[in-house]
Amino acid sequence: MAERLAQDLANCGLVIISGMARGIDSVAHKGAVQARGRTIAVFGTGVDVIYPRENRKLSEQILEFGGALVSEFPLATSPAPHNFPLRNRIISGLSRGVLVVEAGEFSGTASPPVAPEQCREVFAVPGNVTNKLAWTPNTLIKQGAKLVATWEDVFEELPTEIRVQLQERQSTVAEPRAASLFDPPPAAELPAEQQKVFSAIKPMSRSISMN
């Protein structure tokens, strides 16, 4: 489900952001890559430490299609368990909305609940109540998160101007790809230090994170 949603949303032009961990995170990135869309991986390690190791090829594909590998941790930082909940606030902070596909009661996805604190839209895929991994998404839905069964459930919640921009871009691009949806200010208008940062990155303003 995570792979299908990520692929469909990337086909619409959204940037998929996730944490590169084994499981939901990895398949979300894979879905975006299959759509030849942009996806951002926020590491719980140093950006030079691919974890899990089998995701090395995936990390290369993310960069190949214009995505990014991001980490707040110093180079060579190992995958310590407490790093992964910490990086969730970055995943949420980079995103317009957060989509939870599976998570148990004590999952790092549920604690801390950074998305509401950052005023992000929260979406969740419902699951069988006997499945322990459905506890968090089902609870989020009870608390007001938007129920998601298909990519349209996410797309319809986007502000009208963003949906129009995405639809216009898709109608003019032969091979759909995710792209930045705003015109950045001229670099010359930025302070010197910001110009250096701006010249090194390409803005990605509309995105959805997958957890």
In CATH, the architecture is: 3-Layer(aba) Sandwich
Main sheet overview: 7 strands, parallel
Average pLDDT taken over every residue: 86
Shape: globular
Radius of gyration: 17 Å
The end-to-end span amounts to 12 Å
CATH fold descriptor: Rossmann fold
Count of individual beta strands: 7
pLDDT under 50 segments (min length 5)?
Answer: 174-183
The first-level CATH class name: Alpha Beta
Query: Helical residue percent?
Result: 25-40%
* Number of discrete helical segments: 9
Roughly what fraction of the amino acids lie in strands? 5-15%
Give the structural class.
alpha/beta
Order of strands in the sheet with most strands:
3-2-1-7-4-5-6
Order of helices and strands: HEHEHEHEHEHEHHHE
In the residues, how many domains can be counted?
Answer: 1
Structure commentary:
With 211 residues, the chain is an alpha/beta fold. The protein has a single domain, classed as Rossmann fold (3-Layer(aba) Sandwich), CATH 3.40.50. It contains nine helices and seven strands. Strand 4, helix 5 and strand 5 form a beta-alpha-beta unit. Helix 1 packs parallel to helix 2. The longest helix has 13 residues. The radius of gyration is 17 Å and the shape is globular.
